[in-house]
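DM between two lab members

TW: hey, do you still have the Radical SAM core domain-containing protein entry open?
JB: yeah, one sec
JB: this one, 371 aa:
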Amino acid sequence: MIKGWLAEGEIMRKTPYYSYVVGELPKGCQYCVRGEKLVLFVTGVCPRNCFYCPLSSWRRKDVAYANERPITKIEDIIEEAKIQEAKGAGVTGGDPLARLTRTVDYIRALKEEFGSKFHIHLYTTGILADKKALSMLYDAGLDEIRFHPDLFEPSSKFLNREIENLKNAFDFNWDVGGEVPAVPGFEDRIKWFAGILDKWGGKFLNINELEYSETNLRNLLNRGYKPVSNESSAIKGSLELGLRILEWGERNTSLNYHLCTAKLKDAVQLRNRLRRMAKNVAKPYMEITEDGTLRFGIAEYEDLEELYKFLIEEAEVPREWLYINWEKKRIEMPIEVAEELAEVVEGDVKFYIVEEYPTWDRIEVERIPLN
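TW: and the structure you got?
JB:
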């Protein structure tokens, strides 16, 4: 268990992960902050249309991903989990229960492959979490379920059903908790939800710092919310609201609380996941950076076969130092080799140092020209 940074008698403490906690960090979060949780995006379909939803436009469809890898078959999930050396999975969406059979199949497959200790938690609005759905999830091996009810619409048509389904979740032997964003102006509603969780035996309430994305920014601005600064995606007042909820919760409930900040997601969770993946996907000529990205040299030229032959026969570069990436139309190599070649090779050959994520989509984060 991750303990040690809660001093005895203290109400709330900042964690080494730039977040804040009261009590004990939820088990799913313990794996997550270490980068050990596979992000299993089951579907972008959701019965709600929350104004603050940050989901990108290309994921607001019936698509499935394991981290950044598109899922075409269950083996894709298993392979991605192995590359990450994942010790668990966070099942998310959309609402995973909008595609219940798919979700159950994915959970069962992960448990069968990696065993009962592979920890799986799931996020749901609760709208579709009826007794049958809950039973199917439990039987598949789900360890932890997190409810996100519709607290932020004054006349929600879903809230009563979500709360009723939440109550049914306590019939099963798993961890039940809540997870909601800290939306300024809704402090009383969040406290009301915390009270319900506490009354029924809930284990935790996670509060997420509200962030903007290109898909929810207009909605947030139209409601008067503003970013903290030009350098941050966090919304002004959200962090302060989260801290007030934790202070109130410690005095008035027996729940564990975790305030997950925007910085935790970027500076800790993603970074740790990238580091775990990088050591398993890096080729011998690639350097792994402190952030878990891959750095190496490349050469670009219209005729890759001609360039490859020239580098081996004329420049006398050992074959084991060169790799033709046909998909990206380049030859990859150690940085030192690219730097030396850039000084002596003339013509239209372009040499660069590139830095990429070790993820399935290999997003390029930096490119430095050498000639």
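TW: got it. The CA atoms of residues 342 and 371 lie 6 Å apart. The radius of gyration is 24 Å.
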